[in-house]
Amino acid sequence: MYFTRTLFRATQKVTTGLHGFPVHPNPRPALLDLYKQTLSELETKIPQHAVYRQATEAITKHRMNIVEKTEDVNEIEKTVGAGQIEELISAAETELRLIPYLAEAKPWEPLEEPAPEGQWAYFKNQTSTS
């Protein structure tokens, strides 16, 4: 029993090497839970036509599919390609905290006042007369 415990600890990550990101003791289930919560919050608080919901659902479902299919944390990190699993957990937590703010702000609704003419034309090519 003692021998296998030592081998198990040898395979565990000691540090992330990133300040402020301690090693998570059980990252895969935590990440799956965060992804499920995010999808649930999106369904209940953000309308289906909102671009934010569509984009966030697509990313979350894609990553959740990878985490569900893959047991090995190193393989999850490689496949997702967005850093260590602790960074993925942090990003998922941040996304989950963002949803209530967006639900309150409702950025998918039309503007209260119409935008002035040329409001969004910052980068039009201008012909110079030099």
Automatic annotation (TrEMBL):
It is a peripheral membrane protein. Pfam families: ETC_C1_NDUFA5. InterPro entries: NDUFA5. It is found in: Mitochondrion inner membrane. It comes from the Eukaryota. GO terms for cellular component: mitochondrial inner membrane. GO terms for biological process: respiratory electron transport chain. PANTHER family: NADH DEHYDROGENASE [UBIQUINONE] 1 ALPHA SUBCOMPLEX SUBUNIT 5, NADH-UBIQUINONE OXIDOREDUCTASE 13 KD-B SUBUNIT. This is Uncharacterized protein. It comes from Dispira parvispora.
